[in-house]
Amino acid sequence: MAISALLASQACPLLTAGRASVPAALPRSGVYSGVGATVAPGYLIRGRVATAATGGSVIDRPTIAVPGIDKSNETQKKKPRIYRVMLHNDTFNKREYVVQVLLKVVKSITVDDAVNVMQEAHQNGLACVIACAQEEAELYCEGLRNNGLISSVEPDGSGSGNGDSS
Questions:
Q1: Where is the Adaptor protein ClpS core domain (predicted)?
Q2: Does the structure show a pLDDT above 80 at 6?
Q3: Structure pTM?
Q4: Which end of the chain has a smaller Cβ tally under 10 Å, C or N?
């Protein structure tokens, strides 16, 4: 069945006869009103009105303008400064206990990472457990200390974050 005959039989005011663009992959048994269809002037389709000057309009996403909000001058959020949670070597905690505490306090750390952190602290005297925002780093440090480990928080010196020197 031809599109114009289908439109006439369906009495669809949204599509004009002979102007609908139906993709070849779609079956021609129904009325197509998707993107690319041409509408009759004066009809409201998804928030847009077809104009009489062009004889039709292509259906597309409507733009919504909110008065008083200028999107070009929005303030951008600065990334929080990154801090490192440092684990210090001690002589009174067993290595297995250190790994257990790391896994309990820092939920995002894997067993392999916890073993590597413990081993680095044991060999070098100091190891970085995790690098994160200051508030989160202080919580991790407090959790490690509450479980008998020696830990500290220091600013990350890699230059990430917003660059404040406080």
A1: 78-146
A2: no
A3: 0.51
A4: C
